[in-house]
Design brief:
alpha/beta, 5-stranded parallel beta sheet, 12% strand, single chain
Amino acid sequence: MAKQTVYVETSVLSFLCADPSTVQKTFEKQRDTVEWWGAYRQRFEAYVSDVVAAEAAMGHPTFAQRRLEKADQLPLLTAERDDRQLALEFVARGLIPRKAEVDGTHLAIAVRTGMDFLLTWNLKHLANPETLPLVYNYLKAVGRHIPRIVTPAALLELM
């Protein structure tokens, strides 16, 4: 049986590479991310994109280096023109806010490449329980592939 595919979005790398938080909810997200990465990632064909790499390179140099080292462990997908167009459709339909267009690009790449999962901690624009049905319904209506948008914690529950 072929492994399921997962697109690892930038927020996952951020939680994976951050210093342990003193905030309990953040620490729990970090713990779940480290557990998924270390114990379960090998059960999937996991990918990042050049968009993830560009985002991972931003910010404090020490943490950027950590994120990029993790990203380098996964095969790299290249964003295509159609991804940007689909991301703009998400924005135009109000599924993703204009300021978060890059999140729409992550989703578009996962759609185009037929990923089983889009793994994210972005609860505001991607793994948002109010937004998910709208995104899924739109993708179904236009006949596009629908990746399951999940957090590392949710993916651990499926294991």
